[in-house]
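agent> call fold_tool(seq_1)
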Amino acid sequence: MAVDPKYLSSFRCFEDLSDEQRRAVAELAEAECFYPKYTLFEENQPGERLYLITEGEVEVLYSNGERGLTRVDRLGAGEIVGCSALVPPYKHTSTTRSLIEIDVLIIDAIALRELIQEDYSLGFYIQQHIMRLLMERISNLRLGA
């Protein structure tokens, strides 16, 4: 079931969209709850969903060769994970799993990519936000924040 379009306004990447654009994105979203240690997605899997964390906390892990997975970030409410689902080649570059019980909005990324093809201003705004978000995360990773 689709979510209330006004709820999407609480996420930075959707706050400045028009009501019509927000309504279109909300039609692609559904609310879910996951238990602790649930894997949302794994590195190299196809990116088919975008996750907006509404409650709880997740960890972002990268493969570190023979040493296995290494945590590089913790993200909580208001954050977005699975951004690789919007960037070619649409494969996840990390593994992300819940640390505690989490509530998320899941957006069908394949349908969102199609919507972006129909509404370039929507796509431009979302892509600008995603790029800024990823650059902040890279900077924080470099600085050890």
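agent> call fold_tool(seq_2)
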Amino acid sequence: MSFVSKLKIESKGMFATSVFYAVVGIIFLVLMPMANFAPHIGIIGVFSLVAAYGVFRKRAWVIWFVIILFFVGTTFSAFMISDILTRNYILGVSMIAYLILTWVFTAYAASRRNNLES
């Protein structure tokens, strides 16, 4: 019996959204010391973890965190892509992937906002 089946997941899409935000939050918090403790990276990491918790627990307030992360993630990714892409292709491609996944999971969470509890 797998771990996912033990959790009694009702929506695999919302579970994937929660996992995405949790993984992004952990990655950003791990990368924060490597970026000389840049506060914006820590804020994105903490907000991502809060969003992961809210999506997993189906809280209605989480849509605001997802929208905030959409704008912050888009701005951060666009800046990183424009600044880094010509010097570091791996980081540039990872920022493009983060940008696309942020858009996809934001659209999914927004489309399923009626399933969130108040």
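agent> summarizing second result for user.
Residues 11-112 form one domain. The CA atoms of residues 30 and 45 lie 9 Å apart.
agent> awaiting next instruction.
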